[in-house]
Design brief:
- By secondary structure, the chain is α+β, with helices and mostly antiparallel strands.
- The protein folds into 2 domains: about 5-130 and about 225-265 and about 325-330, no CATH class; about 135-220 and about 265-315, no CATH class.
- The protein is about 35% helix and about 25% strand.
- It contains 8 helices and 13 strands.
- Helix 1 (about 5-25) crosses helix 3 (about 55-75), helix 6 runs antiparallel to helix 7 (about 185-205) and helix 7 packs across helix 8.
- The longest helix has 23 residues, at about 5-25.
- The protein is globular.
Amino acid sequence: MPNQTEHGKAFEYACLKGLEGTIATFGQGLTCNLVDNISYKNAKDNFDNLTVHAHKELLLKAGLVMASRLKDLEPRLIYPVKGFKDIITLEIQPDKKGIEGDVRDVLAIRIFMKSEKNNWELGISCKHNHYDLKHPRISPRIDIGKQWLKLDSSKLYLNNISLIFLKLDSVKNSGVTSWAGITNKDTLIYKPLMDEIKNEILRQSSTHEAIACSNLLKYFIGEKDFYKVIVEHKKHSVCLQAFNFNGTLNQPAGKQKAAHNFPIPTLPTQIYNIGFDKDSNSTFTINMDKGWGLSLRIHSASSKIEDSLKLAVKLVGIPEAQCRENLPIT
């Protein structure tokens, strides 16, 4: 049975096919060019390997529902634009882009003939039955300050993280190879690591508060503007969220205007508090101003003990002005 990652890859393929079909049906003199890269082949293979026909059909319909709505919100997806080529390139990005802060899975690109630096891009983050933003890793080799906040982590954080992972090495050296063999992993590993992450975020925000807050949010949500698309099987619906931090969404195509213009959201400048969830040693919530909130939960990436762990990051607070639509799959 396919796992969550494989389902997600299959949905990326369905979203790309939804865009292709919508442009073919509604495009005003436009053509598509599919980039046949490794990411595309991987996504197509995962889609083809789905064994339940109804599941495939649902994903394809979800991709079409998403693309049909985007053609109203993004006129450049189907209308000619002066100075731009009438070819839309559709591409699935490699996973490594997410580590760099670009969470977009699928891109629609139009080339600006005078300078490719001014190309138009529409990015989509595809999610299958979950709302997680990102799954960054934690290890002694990863500087979360530099990666998340664009600020060097303190020596105290790096030293303390290394000491916790030395404890984990000691457990492995005793012959324990799986997380199931560590009965007190919550108090021995999870809670100390989460305490160090919490303390480092507070430490950095105490001296660089506005920068730390805004960079933290943009790292987890995404550096570039995009639409987040979540297919929800049980509800037979697609949830569409727009993130327009740089103001690049909803651009007109000549006289054709977007059905709706999303405002540029105000980034947070202050952390109100960071608190562990009730009865939890592995999850805390970061409450910030402007209505933003993040939940971070630490977990093992596999049953086998490795030299790193993962965080599941969710957006639990969002300003009222942020777009969120639920579209039925019919």
